[in-house]
Automatic annotation (TrEMBL):
SUPFAM superfamilies: Periplasmic binding protein-like II, Winged helix' DNA-binding domain. Belongs to the LysR transcriptional regulatory family. InterPro entries: ArsR-like_HTH, LysR_HTH_N, LysR_subst-bd, WH-like_DNA-bd_sf, WH_DNA-bd_sf. This is LysR family transcriptional regulator. Pfam families: HTH_1 (PF00126), LysR_substrate (PF03466).
Length: 315
């Protein structure tokens, strides 16, 4: 009989590439991972790994087994969800990941809704970039997470993760130059292209999220689609800082609508033909778990609540 925990290790090796990376992600020693994979090979009765220089790679049999591992682990997650549904009440810890701008905009209202409906549930929140959520879910560091993707940076297909849509919002170009107590909003004319809207700022410095994040990739690719390579001056992940820097003329930046509610009065916000989509992610098969379903419902309620607090200038 193949051990599901060892199947999980094999799947992680397939995705992370090295035994050392698997060990670090799952807080094991490399020797322990190697030992468990050797046991899995004996259970399977065929070689699953082979040496390639200093690395190990999966054999054809190993790759085939990973495909089955995805299905097996998803079925186990479904079983756990069904058993949890048979218990009375929703209780215990729920580890929640969130992208930074989702923290103030969605999470507090969602947690308040959870506390009202399920007081025995113990939510624990940590910030994490959307690009790392799949790893966190598979490693068991997270149970559920708020994630997002952008036009130009669609989420990569991942059969180990389930998702439900939460919110789609436009992205704005933030620049300096307004004078007043409220941010100036410039709606894009029908048919305006990215090149027409971003082109005037091609020679300006730019403010982006840090390299390696989805926000950074979106900014660079959007500018490239407009016909230029952005000259990046500042790299910050907090949209409030992006807005503050743009307001004092330190560069142009991109912000989703969710982040514009408290934009400073000296910033100009130009709506772009560009969107960000927020979703709730969980391990494949886990969407019916009562705690995860409760969080999805609470997040949807929170979006309805926070959607009403948007800046009037953006409506």
């Amino acid at each position: 009989m193949l051990d599901p925990r060892r199947l999980h290790l094999l799947r992680e090796l397939d995705r992370r590439g090295t035994i050392a990376a698997v060990a670090e992600a799952l807080t094991f020693t490399a020797s322990a991972v190697s030992q468990q994979l050797s046991v899995l090979e004996r259970e399977a009765g065929v070689p699953l790994l082979e040496r390639s220089g200093r690395r190990v790679v999966l054999t054809p049999a190993g790759r085939a087994l990973v495909t089955h591992a995805d299905a097996v682990l998803e079925r186990l997650e479904l079983a756990v969800s069904e058993l949890a549904g048979a218990r009375e009440g929703i209780r215990g810890p729920l580890r929640i990941g969130t992208f930074p701008s989702g923290g103030p905009a969605i999470v507090p209202a969602a947690l308040a809704e959870l506390a009202r409906r399920h007081p025995a549930l113990e939510p624990m929140v940590q910030e994490i970039d959307s690009a790392r959520v799949s790893d966190g879910l598979r490693a068991g560091e997270l149970d559920v997470a708020l994630v997002h993707d952008y036009d130009f940076v669609p989420a990569s297909p991942d059969t180990t993760v389930g998702q439900v849509p939460l919110l789609e919002e436009p992205v704005y170009l933030a620049t300096g130059g307004a004078a007043g107590s409220a941010p100036a909003t410039v709606p894009a004319a029908r048919g305006d292209t990215l090149a027409e809207l971003l082109g005037p700022w091609a020679a300006s410095p730019w403010i982006t999220a840090r390299d390696g994040t989805t926000g950074h990739a979106m900014a660079v690719r959007a500018c490239q689609a407009a016909g230029f390579q952005p000259r990046i001056r500042h790299q910050v992940n907090d949209f409030r800082t992006v807005l503050a820097l743009a307001a004092i003329g330190q560069g142009a930046g991109f912000v989703p609508e969710m982040a514009t509610a408290h934009a400073p009065g000296d910033v100009v916000l130009t709506r772009l033909p560009l969107f960000r989509r927020s979703k709730v992610a969980f391990r494949a098969g886990g969407g019916t778990h009562p705690a995860i379903a409760a969080f999805v419902a609470a997040a949807r309620t929170a979006v309805g609540v926070t959607g009403g607090t948007s800046s009037p200038a953006l409506r």
